[in-house]
Amino acid sequence: MKKILALALAALMLFALVACGEQKVPETDIPPVVTDAPETPDDGVKVMTYAEYIAAEVDAPVVIEAYVQATQSWWDNKITVYTQDADGAYFIYEMVCSEEDSAKLVPGTKIRVTGFKTEWSGEVEVASGATFEIVEGAEPFIAEAFDATALLGTDDLIKHQNELAIFKGMTIVSIEYKNGEPGDDIYVKLSKDGAEYDFCVERYLTGPETDVYKAFAELKAGDVVDVTGFIYWYNAVNTHITAVAK
């Protein structure tokens, strides 16, 4: 009987402790702390250096920062941009952009671009619906054209794809308007040391109203010129001309 009473008394004491909130819960039974907002998983994409961009696979997502050097004409909420920094250049094809924002993309402006690295006929570019934001407070950067004449015909020229360059002492072989008359692209064939190279006056970059476009009306086969432009690629070098001097 005493044993039964002792057990009953112990049970009553335990009930009283529970009722008062004094029961100890083993540590192994304590639930984990849940924060208000779980961590966002890392998507693996960060702002890349030029070397990292070059090393990235085609079709990989990329985020780069560079400075606007020139733009093609805005249309249909898209704009194509030539950009560069101290390490290299990037061609941003049909970047999503309102007409209002296109006016902000003046040479020297730093932008952060998110898109996919693509390749078309040898031209490596950021495309597939690329978007951008302006990097506020950045000092402007305008690239100086480097002399790429000695690189013509070498494997090293493509390493400078999309950079602003000058080619000196080039002889005009032919000048051809895309549709047979002024108004559209001008296809210019130039030679150096017996080899010929294709250049282009891209109408959406330097249209009929620009000095460089008008200059070709005064040039002819046999003229020797210095040509400045962005080292674009179309199966081979196909520099987009921005200036010409006889």
Description:
This protein has 246 residues and is mainly beta. It has two domains: 47-134, OB fold (Dihydrolipoamide Acetyltransferase, E2P) (Beta Barrel), CATH 2.40.50.140; 146-245, Nucleic acid-binding proteins (OB fold (Dihydrolipoamide Acetyltransferase, E2P)). Helix content is 13%, strand content 39%. It is built from four helices and twelve strands; from the N terminus they run H-E-H-E-E-E-H-E-E-E-E-E-E-H-E-E. The strands form two sheets. Strands 1, 2, 3, 4, 5 and 6 form a six-stranded mixed β-sheet that branches. A hairpin with a 6-residue loop joins strand 2 and strand 3. The radius of gyration is 32 Å and the shape is globular. The model is unreliable at 1-43 (pLDDT under 50).
CATH class of the largest domain: Mainly Beta
How many β strands by DSSP?
12
- The helical percent reads 10-25%
The CATH level-2 architecture of the largest domain is identified as Beta Barrel
Order of helices and strands: HEHEEEHEEEEEEHEE
Estimate nothing, just give the exact number of structural domains: 2
Count of helix runs: 4
Radius of gyration: 32 Å
Structural class: mainly beta
Strand content: 35-45%
Chain-averaged pLDDT = 87
Shape: globular
Biggest beta sheet attributes: 6 strands, mixed
The poorly predicted ranges are 1-43
Fourth-tier CATH superfamily name of the largest domain? Nucleic acid-binding proteins
The N- to C-terminal Cα distance equals 121 Å
Query: What would the CATH topology of the largest domain be?
Result: OB fold (Dihydrolipoamide Acetyltransferase, E2P)
